[in-house]
Amino acid sequence: MEAFKRLINLALVAGCLALEIAVFAYHWYFHFQHSVVEDLRHFYFWGHVLEVSIYGVVLIAFSNMYGGMRLGYLKSAELVFSQMFATLMAWFFIYVELSVMAFQLFKPLYFLHMIAEQFLVVLVYIFLADKVYRSIFPPRRLLLIYGERDPKELIRKFETRWDKYRIAETASAALGEEALKELIRTQFEEGNCNAVVIGDMTEPQRKPLIKFCYANSIRFYLLPKISDVILMGAEELHVFDSPILLTREFSLTMEQRFLKRLIDIVCSVILLVLTSPFMLLTALAIKLYDGGPVLYRQVRLTKDMREFQIMKFRSMRVDAEKDGVARLASKGDSRITPVGRVIRKCRLDELPQLLNILKGDMSFIGPRPERPEIMAQYMEIMPEFAYRLRVKAGLAGFAQVYGKYNTTPYDKLKLDLTYIENYSLVLDLKLMLLTLKVLFWPDSTEGVESDQVTALREQVERERASRDRQRTEPDGSTAETGRTPSEAEKEGGNRDE
């Protein structure tokens, strides 16, 4: 079944790519080649094949990078956007290549015609292909097994992808190992579920379920703990007759740090020159709107908890935090000015951070820097949040590419750790290219919902629920756990136990 599903996926994706390549081949043969060579007799058949093949390879590479080939995985709108963005990147590459071949800049008219035709192909074809794919392969029916934490937030995440997943059944890990195994077996035999989600449970609870699903060839999704993410980047050694996993005491080697810094300096200088007109216009717009300061300086934390002054174009009112309380921007935040909404959507407010990168406080890619007071609040209930500071803070990062502005701190931590533990220069370059797509995708700029569970609010809710459910014994321990409140609170705060 999985092989058939993969075959259908590849066939549908190949159809879209083939049509786009055919559009390019048409324009190449009838329009572009005339600007490359004057005497067409010198352009042989295999020359045409080579040029079309180059375009095809470039288009496939960008489509794979930006998710245009992830039919059935991304939402329909994001799939169309991803493929259109990949097409634009391929267009830019081939435009530069043909301009070099012709020793002059190509007139963009035929290129614009080609892009319009390809966009139409992508819009119509992917919409139909997505409909066909989802009619053949309906959403997976999931059995969600959760631990002590309320599963509502996790269910909410899956509900945002109703086109791909449906929670058909839920069960608490408190049922016990044997009862859960029997439940899984029954749900699969009766066809009610075809995958299991192993949620945030303790190691003794989840270990037998993982082995049971693996032994019975049952597909399962595992929500990794922080310790799991750390081990993802471990080096496998074979010095004995048993494999050993090595996690080093430093995150980046000396060579990696040198090359990363070199790239930061070169790219920041180039971008400062290229974006200077946009920075000037942004500064004028902010100043003309309310006459307040153009730049907003704020203390943030970078590698090893070192403080620095981050610079951004001001997007909020001058008195946005007159009460002295640090808070994240919420969805529809009234503190954001009209100019601020525009520059935040376009990410123009981040441009002054190129100076932070040039100075050495930040890097292009790395965990986004947090404010010391917010960092302290997170670390009170999640000490592991300090792990993000094993590398220099970044203008963009893994959590920004694969998460959102309103991704919860715990999930951001796991995403940032994934980057730290799997670091390579190739990954940095990939994330730089993927950031271009994120700049234009609206989901990445969403604020925090008023009812969204963050790490801080979750702690408050847990403590309130604990007071409501549990009665305190004379010795200070709780009736349900037999531990003192401070012990229970400590374990509840460490979400990796």
- Amino- and carboxy-terminal Cα gap: 37 Å
Number of extended strands: 10
Global structural class = alpha/beta
User: Largest sheet, described in full?
Assistant: 4 strands, parallel
* Uncertain parts: 445-456, 469-497
* Broad shape: globular
Q: Helicity, in percent? A: 40-55%
Give the key terms:
single chain, globular, alpha/beta, four-stranded parallel sheet, two-stranded antiparallel sheet, 4 domains, disordered C terminus, 497 residues, Rossmann fold
Description:
The protein is α/β, with parallel strands linked by helices. It folds into 4 domains: 2-136, no CATH class; 140-223, 3-Layer(aba) Sandwich (Rossmann fold); 254-445, no CATH class; 460-493, no CATH class. Helix content is 55%, strand content 10%. Strands 2-1-3-4 form a 4-stranded parallel sheet, with helices on both faces. A two-stranded antiparallel ribbon has the order 5-6. A hairpin with a 5-residue loop joins β7 and β8. α2 packs antiparallel against α3, α3 packs antiparallel against α4 and α8 (226-232) packs parallel to α14. The longest helix has 37 residues, at 254-290. The chain starts with a helix and ends with a helix.
Which secondary structure elements does this structure contain, and how are they paired or packed?
Elements: H1 2-36, H2 45-66, H3 76-102, H4 109-136, E1 140-146, H5 152-159, E2 165-172, H6 177-189, E3 195-198, H7 203-215, E4 220-222, H8 226-232, E5 235-237, E6 244-246, H9 254-290, E7 295-301, E8 307-313, H10 338-345, H11 353-359, E9 363-365, H12 372-381, E10 394-396, H13 398-402, H14 409-421, H15 425-439, H16 455-469, H17 485-493
Helix pairs in contact: 1-2, 1-4, 2-3, 3-4, 8-14, 9-11
